[in-house]
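Let's practice the habit of predicting before peeking. Look at the sequence and jot down your guess about where helices and strands might fall. Then scroll down.
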Amino acid sequence: MEVRSFNVKLERNEWVMLNFILGYKTKIVIWITIVGLAMLYTVIDYLTLNSFNTNQFPLGQLLFAVLILVVIPVSTYFRATKMLETNPWIRETAHYFIGETSISIKGDTYEVSIHWINIKSIEELKNWIVIYSEAKRGFFIPKRIFSKEELVSLKKALELVPAQKIKLK
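Done guessing? Here is the structure:
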């Protein structure tokens, strides 16, 4: 594998969107969202059709729906923006060096090098390549920084990495 280097500066909007993508791709969050939508449906049904023939306003369902469908996305947004402001790993421009035996990332206030054998997984999302060093901690590389040829070349190189799990499209 040839040594590759590139710089990544995450934009605020793309970082927030990535947090939503990663949060809402888990099965539990999907199921909770579906339950929240079902609760919202019962409130809408009461206000319009009242097909359940009830005289009592479904306040519990409304509160649960608001909690799930409003509070969770708002808290995700604020958590992501707070992380961007306080975490130099996310805020600073990262200089990546992908070599045959390891990946190194250097910012203004940090430097880390991890051998490929210690990488848990590599995953490709629609607009991202994510290299997980732990189950919930990774390095996020936006595809926008690569040309089509560079991206194909990078993915071919990453397929050779001895990570535990590789999911590239």
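How did you do? Residues 59-86 form the longest helix (28 residues).
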